[in-house]
Amino acid sequence: TKKFLSEMVEIAEHAKKIARDDPRKVIHSLKVGLALNLVSLLYYIQPLYRNFGENTMWAVMTVVVVFEFTVGATIGKGLNRGLATLVGGALGLGAYHLSSIAGKPGEPILIGILVFLQAGASTFIRFFPRVKARYDYGMLIFTLTFCLVSVSGFRSDDLFELARERLCTILIGASACVIVSIFVRPVWAGEDLHKLVALNLERLGNFLEGFAGEISNSTEAKEFENDVQFRVGVNGILDSKNREDILANLARWEPGHGQFMYRHPWKQYLKIGNLTRQCARRVESLNSYLIPKTQASENNDMIQVAFSNVSSESGKALKELALAIKTMILPSSANPHITNMKIASGNLKSFLKSDFCEDTNLLEIMPVAAIASLLIEIVICVENIADAVNELASLAN
Amino acid sequence: TKKFLSEMVEIAEHAKKIARDDPRKVIHSLKVGLALNLVSLLYYIQPLYRNFGENTMWAVMTVVVVFEFTVGATIGKGLNRGLATLVGGALGLGAYHLSSIAGKPGEPILIGILVFLQAGASTFIRFFPRVKARYDYGMLIFTLTFCLVSVSGFRSDDLFELARERLCTILIGASACVIVSIFVRPVWAGEDLHKLVALNLERLGNFLEGFAGEISNSTEAKEFENDVQFRVGVNGILDSKNREDILANLARWEPGHGQFMYRHPWKQYLKIGNLTRQCARRVESLNSYLIPKTQASENNDMIQVAFSNVSSESGKALKELALAIKTMILPSSANPHITNMKIASGNLKSFLKSDFCEDTNLLEIMPVAAIASLLIEIVICVENIADAVNELASLAN
User: Fold this and answer.
1) Helix (H, G, I), strand (E, B) or coil at A358
2) Cβ neighbours of residue B132 closer than 8 Å, sequence gap 6 or more
3) Coil, helix or strand at residue B289
4) ipTM of this predicted structure
5) CA dihedral of B132, B167, B146, A136, whole degrees rounded to 10
6) Considering only CA atoms, which of B362, B370, B294, B366 is closest in space to residue A353?
7) Which value, in Å, is the radius of gyration of the alpha carbons in chain A?
8) Which whole-number Å values give the CA distances from B228 to A280, B223, B276, B346, in the listed order?
9) With a CB-CB cutoff of 8 Å, which residues 279-298 of chain B face chain A?
10) Model-wide pTM > 0.95
11) Are B29 and A377 a contacting pair at CB < 8 A?
12) Which residues are within 8 A (CB) of B185 and not within 5 positions of it... i.e. 6 or more apart?
């Protein structure tokens, strides 16, 4: 029992951590409870219950299944469910009437063939990447409704009334979800995407600035701790592709909100995100090199200054770009840093062109050369990111 | 209408491509149709229908919702749904009886509070990463069943009978899915993971061998085409993390099949996959350098031979490792290549230590130095991968 208790404490602490990291998750849980109680009223209030009878349960089912964390996901699922029920129900009714012409013995066989064709076709269509991204749930509900209506039509008296009642209750459930989701502390997928992309840029900028600092004054004591933090941070950026894709897909369902209008250029965020990851891969490689401290020659000092300039200016540029995204202004404040960065990169190149290696072997120079080439690539990445951010600003006005 | 026709043709071609790329998707669609028709028999055959009446529809719903592409996903969803219905139904019955003690006016209020607490708690628990990975669907169905039973208990006469019939039909539906999924041309998530990891290793090996070939004889004509192929291939490897994680999660639900026993070390595949991606990032950087052809000095020739040796041997080692995974044998055939690779890497290092740069500037040497340092890193990556593959072999016996 002691082990059980300590496990319970652990789970509680884990829960507390999740709640503290994102309090919106707690609020979301309460919102689900609220929406469920709203549709439960259909059961409790006699005049409402009389309308739909047993079919009231479809409202409850819809709320449980449709209510998602973000507004976009909730609207997307609600629309998918509503439309798919409508279309699937209509086609199911059609299939039922078609097969009832065949007469009693042939009826189930004809229904079976139609169900087989419909289920096979919609299941296959769900493999289309574009359908999968946005209408996967709709195709599922389409099959579900078609089968329920056409198959259970075989046993039901008033199929049309049944279909109508289910559609109504599903629409009520979906509306309850969408309304609660939008009006009680909404979580917008678009805003999350916006913040995530800006945050990743900012983190990358911080790493580059940190690298510049490491070059100038080597504080090796804090190095290990920094390194772990760095790995976690960069891996966070590199692994964010999937999350960004999902958020962008959800954001497209959302109406205008806050600073974002409907049809905000969400795809452009994906482009910036991809460029950020390209840049992050270079920064990751950068971190694996230690600058050799062995020879404190004049050359070495000069090249370290050049390194430090390039990385600190590119870091500052990235941070200004992140700020411009966050505050939705034109990224003009990044321009001086980009100019400085280009100048520093040019200096680095011309410095490298000068005869640098004098009686030294390649293995010792290698880290220096590798860092130099990575920094030059990072400069190009940053320029591309700046272009993409400018494009975003002009697309979004 | 002409535009409509051409669009239809386009969609048909898209569908044909999906079917040709993975014919299992077509078979899966047919399997869904088959399973649906199996449970439809519950409607058509009078003695079966008498058992469950209207609740037969839960069998149809379960099939549509539970049947997934892989066996693991189907079993996982089926188990989740079955267990969650059982537990949710039992607790729902308890909640209903508890609140019925309160008497008519208080009853809906008490049920409402219980629903609110239950829905809030389970929604929050779904945010736990470990729950999300394996029991997300179960928590959803748990909430659904609890709410349906406790809330509709307010209007139903024989709640226990209702719950029993629904549980039975859901179990029938889930069993139909699992049986069809396992016995008709099964698609195993574990096998897919196995093949994906081996394929990624093999592709990486091919790239490294190709790089070796490019160094020895520069065939610039085919370069662009190769480059596009290369980009697509490497991005495929880099982006496969999410897919591997999902497959490993699903594989854990699967019983033993083919060469795999139950509790095959699926996690080890994720480790190999992560190491493969680390290596792929280096290979990606490698590709961005062109070896300067300007000076055909003796030094240059020698270093090109060293480069070519390291990359061809590491490529061969990776391909042997991939083959060992595929055929599930001990990766001993990779050992000679790993030895050669280490020797070549050692040669490269000692060669670099010798005075290499003579009256040449750093900017020209930089690509050579960068390639050298990347190749040395790749050698370390390959050694790590070999260790991980050996570990997999010993874990799996």
Assistant:
1) coil
2) B126
3) coil
4) 0.89
5) 40
6) B362
7) 30
8) 22, 9, 20, 32
9) 281-282, 284-285, 288-289
10) no
11) no
12) B24, B27, B31
Token digits for B61? 């719903």
Statement: residue A296 has pLDDT above 70: no
Residue B6 DSSP class: H
Q: Which two tokens stand for residue B250?
A: 């699903």
For residue A223, give the amino acid letter.
E
Q: Within the 100-119 window of chain A, which residues sit less than 8 Å (CB to CB) from chain B?
A: 108, 111-112, 115-117, 119
Distances B229 to B222, B236, B287 between C-alpha atoms, Å = 11, 11, 12
What is the C-alpha separation between B214 and B108, in angstroms, rounded?
76
In tens, the pLDDT along B86-131 reads 999 999 999 988 888 877 778 888 999 999 999 999 999 999 999 9
A311-320, A363-372, B161-170, B178-187: which range is least confident on average? A363-372
d(CA B146, CA A86) in angstroms, rounded, equals 27
Tens-place pLDDT, residues A234-274: 888 988 888 999 999 999 999 998 888 888 999 999 999 99
Give CA–CA dist B201/B280, Å, rounded: 9
Residue with tokens 């028709």: B37
Backbone angles phi, psi at A257, to 5 degrees: -155, 140
Of A32, A140, A366, the CB nearest to B64: A140
Vertex A108: Cα angle to A104 and A110 (nearest 5): 100
Amino acid at A243: R
pLDDT in tens, A176-214: 999 999 999 999 999 999 999 999 999 999 999 888 887
Instruction: Outline where chain B has alpha helix (H).
Output: 2-21, 24-44, 46-52, 57-66, 71-101, 107-125, 129-152, 159-183, 189-216, 223-238, 241-251, 266-287, 298-327, 335-353, 362-395
Q: Are A85 and A138 in contact (CB under 8 A)?
A: no
